[in-house]
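Box 3.1 A note on notation
Throughout this textbook, protein chains are presented in two layers. The first layer is the amino acid sequence; the second is a C-alpha cell string describing backbone geometry. Keep the layers aligned when reading.
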Amino acid sequence: MLIGIYHDNLTYPHKFEGVTLMIKTIYQETKERMEKSVQALEKDMGRVRTGRASLSILDPVKVDYYGTLTPLSQMASIAVPESRLITVQPWDISAIKEVEKGILKANLGLTPVSDGKIIRISIPPLTEERRKEIAKKAHQTCEDFKVALRNIRRDSNDELKSLQKDGDISEDDNFKAQKQVQEITDEYIRKIDEIFAAKEKEILEI
C-alpha cells in the first residue's frame, strides 16, 4: 500500500498506525462502492437485448398474482431450450393468463404464446441497424457508469483532502493515497471496458 511515513514514527507509533488505518479504510470503501457499481452494470447488461434468448431478459416482468405484483422468477420455471426460444412454466397453472399479461405489460417487444401449460417466447432476430442501435445504447450506459466511478474517486479524494486539512495526514500521505485511489479507479474502469467489449460482441453477433 502506498502510504506516506511521518518523520516522528518512532516517537509516535500509534499516530502512524492511525494514519495507516484511516487511509486503508478509504481504499476499502472506494473498492466496495466501485464493486457495487460494476455489479449493477453487469446486471443492466444482462438485460440488454441481443439476438439470443437469455433468462435475464425477463427480469423486469412482474405478474399480478392475486393482487400482488410478483417477479416472474418467483412464480415460474424459466428456461432457454434453444438459442432463440424461452419457455415459461408457471407453478400455478391458473395464473398463466396473468403471466402472459405481465410479459406483454413489460414492453419488452416479446410475444408470449401459450398452450395452456407452458408459455413459449420466440426471440426475433435483430436487424443490423437495430443491433448497432442497441450497441450504442449499451456503450452510453457503460460511459455513465464510468462517470459514477469518477464521482466515487472524487468523494475519496475529498476525504483525503479533509484529513490533510485537519492535520490527520501529511501532504505526502495525501498525494500518495490519491495516486492509489486513481489506480483503483483505473482497475474498475478496465472492468467496465471488458464488460462492454463482451456485450458488444454478443449484440453484433449475427
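Strands lie at 62-65, 68-71, 76-82, 85-90, 112-114, 119-122. Helices lie at 13-46, 96-105, 128-165, 171-204.
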